[in-house]
Amino acid sequence: MAIRYPNGKKYQPNTPAASTAQKKTVSYGKRGMSLEQDLNDTNAYYLTHGLAVIHKKPTPVQIVGVDYPKRSSAKIKEAYFKTPSTTDYNGVYQGKYIDFEAKETKNTSSFPLSNFHQHQLTHMEGVLKQDGIVFVIIAFQTLGEVYLMPFEHFQPFWQRMLDGGRKSVTLQELKHVADQIPYGLNPRLDYLNIIRKHYF
């Protein structure tokens, strides 16, 4: 199925499938699952245990081409994103609005800022101005490491790029302003523990 952005550009998922060899090197008790699945499992745990209500935002899609191989089934052949997305997740924790974007990379030494879009930054700036809790979660897929960076620490890297500087954040730079989220069983990626440290 072809999914396209409003400008007609073909959508490419930012989570390429990991090879079997890579899964073996990063998989410690299912480490190496997609970041999205890990976060969805974590959010389900938070919800079940009454800790927070945080969900992945549904992406509005307009279907323009459908194939009917059988009368009882339909296959979507082409679809477009109706509007540019904002961030991946939002919800509420201890009376505070939470909003964050989650990205992953196979790079081992830096994170490319091209994974983000200006409209996402504009959205996160707005949330920050309203005193919401806003951050980014970045996974280094090959290293099996996940980091939470408050948006106010991420913003200067974006501005540096806009000013003609480096188009990525090095892992060393990231480690100075972000907290590593350790993998666990339940919850999978306990990012609320880090949020408590920064915001409560």
Automatic annotation (TrEMBL):
Obligatory cofactor(s): Mg(2+)
Record's compositionally biased regions (Polar residues): 12-25
InterPro entries named among the record's database cross-references: Resolv_RecU, Restrct_endonuc-II-like, tRNA_endonuc-like_dom_sf
EC id: 3.1.21.10
Site entry (Transition state stabilizer), positions: 103
Record-listed Mg(2+) binding positions: 86, 88, 101, 120
Principal location class: cytoplasm
Signal sequence, renumbered to the chain: none
Record carries keyword Phosphoprotein: no
Cofactor binding comment, as recorded: Binds 1 Mg(2+) ion per subunit.
Reactions mediated catalytically: Endonucleolytic cleavage at a junction such as a reciprocal single-stranded crossover between two homologous DNA duplexes (Holliday junction)
GO cellular component: cytoplasm
Protein origin, superkingdom: Bacteria
Renumbered residue ranges of the record's region Disordered: 1-25
One of the record's GO molecular function terms: nucleic acid binding
Protein task: Endonuclease that resolves Holliday junction intermediates in genetic recombination. Cleaves mobile four-strand junctions by introducing symmetrical nicks in paired strands. Promotes annealing of linear ssDNA with homologous dsDNA. Required for DNA repair, homologous recombination and chromosome segregation.
Family stated for the protein in its record: Belongs to the RecU family.
Protein's recorded name: Holliday junction resolvase RecU
Species, as recorded: Listeria rustica
Gene: recU
